[in-house]
Amino acid sequence: MKAERTILERLDEIVRGEEVREKILRIVKRVRAKLAQTPKEVMAWEPIPLAMFGNALPPEICSGWVFILRAGVNTGPERHPNSHQRMMCFDGIGDMQITTDLNSPWQSNVLGNDSEAPLEQRWVSIPQNVWHQPVVGSEADWVVVSFHTVPAEDLIEERPDPDSAAGTKQMVYLDKG
Question: What is the SS3 assignment for 126-137?
Answer without folding.
Answer: ECCCCEEEEEEC
